[in-house]
Amino acid sequence: MIKGLKICGVSDPKTLNYILKHPNPPKFIGFITNYRKSKRFVEYEKLKELLNVDKRNINFTSVLVDPTDEILEKIKNLNFDYYQLYDVEPERTKKIKLEYKIKIITAITVSSKEDVIKYKDYSKISDIILFDSKGYHKSESFDHSLLNEVSNEMTKMIAGNIQIDDIPNFKNRDYIIDLSGALEDINGKKDINKIDKLLNLFEKYEN
Q1: Cα(32)–Cα(190) distance, rounded to whole angstroms?
Q2: Does the global pTM surpass 0.90?
């Protein structure tokens, strides 16, 4: 059974409040914290204001690509439950987790089986392993069958150009599903109608 849902790249109060008040909310909401190349990036002052809400038991996740000590210090008191780390080596990941007393989602970008097995280096450090495409903010896909041999002991999240109508295909997989681009309009803004469709559909398949 599917283990949960994450909506990533939320950047405005209207979308956030809609998700928080939805009768079938996701388990995670992601905010792009330091990756300026992403159209979903949120500046610090805006982020600080955006996160000042009642989370209603939803896990707020800071998405960070190779974060500097400066940005980690800057965001340490914000309303986050998880740091989702890209391009961070195991030892530094462990240091971040301990120093900031934060749960960790380690993002592994995948294009081959060799990429997938890197998760073993993080299995004792990270709370969740996210398998994503190499596209980062470009919503590219990868071959999900590459994950078939990943240990069931790990809590696994999967991303990479997953569409709303793909959700039933995961009904027998123990993944947390992470969507972003599939929930946007032609201008790259989050679409309330698509989010509503996703959350109502997902309620049927979530464990």
Answers
A1: 14
A2: yes
